[in-house]
Structures are given as structure tokens and as C-alpha cells.
Fold this sequence. Notes:
Blueprint lengths: L1 H14 L2 H34 L4 H45 L9 H42 L1 H48 L1 H7 L2 H8 L3 H43 L4 H14 L6 H21 L19 E10 L2 E11 L4 E6 L5 H8 L7 E6 L2 E2 L5 H7 E5 L9 H6 L7 H10 L3 H5 L16 H14 L4 E5 L7 H14 L4 E5 L3 H5 L3 E6 L2 E6 L1 H4 L3 H9 L4 H8 L2
Parallel strand pairs: 3-8, 3-9, 6-7, 7-8
Antiparallel strand pairs: 1-2, 1-4, 4-5, 9-10
Helix pairs in contact: 1-4, 1-10, 2-3, 2-4, 2-9, 3-4, 4-5, 4-9, 4-10, 5-8, 5-10, 8-9, 14-16
Amino acid sequence: MARDGSRALLLSTAARVRGRLAALVALMVTRALLGLATPALLAASVKAALDGGDAVRPVALLGAAVVASGVLDATTAPLGSSAVGRAGAWLQLRTVSHLLTFGSRPSLPPGDATARVVQAAPGVAGLTVTVASSVISLASSVVALGLLWWIDPWAGLVFALSVPVVVLVSRRFIGGATAAQADYMESQSALSARLLSALAGARTIRAAGTVAAETDRVLAPLPGLASAGQALWNLQRGTMWQLKLLIPLTQVLVLAVAGLGVASGRTGPAELLAVSGYLGLACGALAQVDILLEVAQVRAGASRLAEILYRPGPVDGTRPGLPAGGGEVVLREVTLSRDGMPVLDRLSLLLPAGRSTALVGRSGAGKSLVAGLIGRLCDPDSGQVLLDGVPVDELPLTELGRQVTYAFDRPALTGTTIHEAISYGSLGAKRADVVEAARTVSADAFVRRLPLGYDTPLEGAPMSGGERQRIGLARALVRPARVYVLDDATSGLDTVTEAEVTEALTTRLHGRTRLIVAHRAATAARCDLVAWLEDGQIVALAPHTELWRDEDYRAVFAAAGTPARDGQETAGV
């Protein structure tokens, strides 16, 4: 499967630049033909001079061939770079786009995925050009060997005897190099993944005083990396000395046999020059180890990229759109597992249209997974999720993204400026829309205090966790959706600010369906209904005031650190 995926990936990458490749191959073939003609023209020029004949014509043709070869060399280089660059950009874009479609589904660690894209994509993109150049060079070498044999059969025979030895050495090398290169890339990706996770938690590591232990953890794959690198180096060392000895020895023997031919009168001095020229071209077939190493590296890289690209992602729906509706959401007998362990077990839930529903449960109960099901950030193993009566997996992901919008507890802010971060994903959002959304979530005041207000670059706008949450909430509000999912999106706000923001959201989103993942009793109390998640199922769906009478329900908030008094006062109990 991995081999088939690698082959398909290489073919599809080459297809993206087939026009440039066709032009490049045509230029390289022309250059190879001129290279094959050059020794013959040189021999003809020398022979004419030695015989006292007219050497002007062969010399002129020789000069023209040399000049044309130089022009072609200067043309093929930028054309090849253009083809590789275009293919590499397409491959990286395709890989990153596919990674992003997984949403919160299990995928590769970010460091591993990044390493694969950075390491493998350039090599895969350039392999077609490398292979085309190698094949043309090999064909040229075969023709040169035939001409060498035609000029002096004995010299050709001596050269031909060395070919099986080179093939045997090369096959042994490329097989071992592919495995060693794969091990090297895997260790490098593991190192990158650990380093990225450590950098993300640098403050925690420093505060905990565990820098030394974390350094050891990050560098744990280093021995494997060193071992794979050493194995690769040993392969190169063991192969190169054999080839570096074999190729010059072959050249010396061929020239010696050709020289004896001149001495015996079998061939002339001009033919000796031709033999020398064609010998150099024929030896190109013996000097392909560098190409073989590159092929081994690319094969390993292509296999690692194929693991990403041919990993099944979410299947896009084909239904043209949703019927008119108020945003009713139904989860019907939904089951979902993670790492082989069931998290949601035949869960059923109704989110009434136009109402706000709090989703509460103990830490690790699967609240974020339930929230993610509505917008297909994750898909159930079984069961159905419906939006206004339509299964969400029948809708195109772009259409579903317009109908279901999210705000998260730790929003990733994307864009260059604050304005772009809020308007991200909302085509046509104007400054007035952005400002109004920010004002609703109490973000307008602190944004205006920034040096350039809404045009302040993100990197020049230090924000607290609560301020980032408010920017994330504003981003959700800019988008006119049927369903708004707030996944603990106010957890970073103090109690007073959260109350103000929640009241403003209630007014702004009146008549819109809202699912609010809540850890505070006060947050749950402000919603119309509360869905209580326990042991993978919804054990109750009722107003907070009713559920608060249940000791087990109160214990959910006690475990999350919410004082009982908070829930009582807000609920009026």
C-alpha cells in the first residue's frame, strides 16, 4: 500500500508540471544528441587536418555544437528549477490542505507532520526532473557505448565487462540506503515533534524546574538519528570506494586497448580521440550513485508523505444546501472512540432551534467531541448528526462551515492584523461588522488602546488569555450562522466580564441555536437548557434550576472548581 501510494504521489506531482517537463525533456534530449555528435565532429576535424583535407566544415560544425550545448545548458537549468518549484509548491499546499481537513480527528503530531512536509516535498517535487535527466544520460551512455564498440570492438568489450559489476554494487546500495533514509527521517520527525511540544510549553517547563528532564525527553530520538545516519554513511563509504576505483580502472583499460589499436594500425589517431570522448559519455552510466542516493531519499520521503495524503479524510458531502430552518440539531445514537476506548456511547441529544443549551460534564467526559460533531470537526463511528433534518455528512464542508461556527477556549488567531483575525473566514466582512462584533464581546475598548487599533499587527498586540478569547468570540459573531458552538470560550474571563459578555451574546444571538460547553455553574445557569454528559451519554436535559437539586450534578462543578454558592446564586436556588 505504501509503495502504491508513493508511486501515485510521484505520478500526480509530475502531472502538475507536465508541460514544463515536456519542454525540459526536449531540451535535454537535444543537448544529449549534441554531446554524442561532439566526439565524432572532433575526430572528423583532426582526421581532416592530419590528412591535409578541408577541416573548415567539421571545425565549424564542432564550434556550433559546443555553442549550442552551452546555450541549452543555460536554458535547462532555470526551466528545471521552475518545474521543481511549481511542483513543490503544489505538493506542499496539497499536503497541508489535507492535514487541515482532519480537524480534531486523530492525526500526526504537528512536529512530525511539519517535518514530513519540509523534508520530503522538495525531493518528491524534484525527482521527476532528476529521473528524466538520469534516463536521458543513461540512454546517451548506451548510445555512446554502441559507438565506442563500433569504432573499436575490443575497447567496447572491455567497457561492457565492467557494467554487471556496477549494477550489482548499485542495487545493493539503493536497497540499504532506502531503509536507512527512512529510519533517519523517522527519527528526525520524532525529534521535531518533541521539540515543538516543548517549545509550546516552555513557560510551564521553566516554572516547574524540569528543563533538564525535558531536554532529555526531546533528545531521546537522537541516538536513533545518529545510528541511521551512521548506517547511511557506512553504505556510502562502502559503495563509493568500489565505484571510485572501478570507473578509473575501466577508463584506463579501455584507453589502453584503444591505444594498442592505434599502435597496431587497427584504428587511427582520430578514432582514439572519438574513443576518449565516447568513453567519457559511457562512464556517465557508471557514475549514477549520487542519483541513486537521491532516489533512495525521495522514495523514503514519498512514502512518508503518502501516509498523510492517502490517509482517509472526511468525505465531502454533495447536497447543494440546507432547507429553511432555525438551526435544530439532533445527535442520534452517536458512538465515538478514541485510541480504541469508547468516549461517546449511543449518545442522543436534541438542541432546540433558537435556544441556548449548556453542555456540562466532568473533565474528559467528551464535551469537546460532542461539540465538534456538529461542524464535523470529528465524525462519529456510528450514529447520525442532523442539522435541520439534514445529515451533516451530506453537506459540503464549506457549506457546513458557513452554517456552524465555533469559538474555542484557546483560539488560534490567524491573519496579519487584529481586523484580519476577527474577519478571518468571513468574506466581505467590513470594518463596521468587525467593530460591532468586538464591541459585543467587550473587546473594542482594549483593541482601541493598541498602537494602531484594529490595524495593529498580531505580533505587536500582546493579549491575555481572556482577551484572546474575546477576539475569538468576535470572530465567531462576524459570521452569520445557524448554529454557534462556544467551546468553553469564556473560561478565561473573570466572573463580571463573563456575565457582561454572556448577556451581550444572548441579545446578539437571540433566536440562534447555541451550544455552550460550560465548566462554570454560572455559565450553565444563563442557558435555556443544560445537557448533562456522563459516561458517554446524556443523562439529563433540563433547565439548570431543576438539575441543581441533584447532588451528583452539583458535584460536576465542584470537581471543576466552581463554588456551590456560585451556582445557587445565579440559578436563584
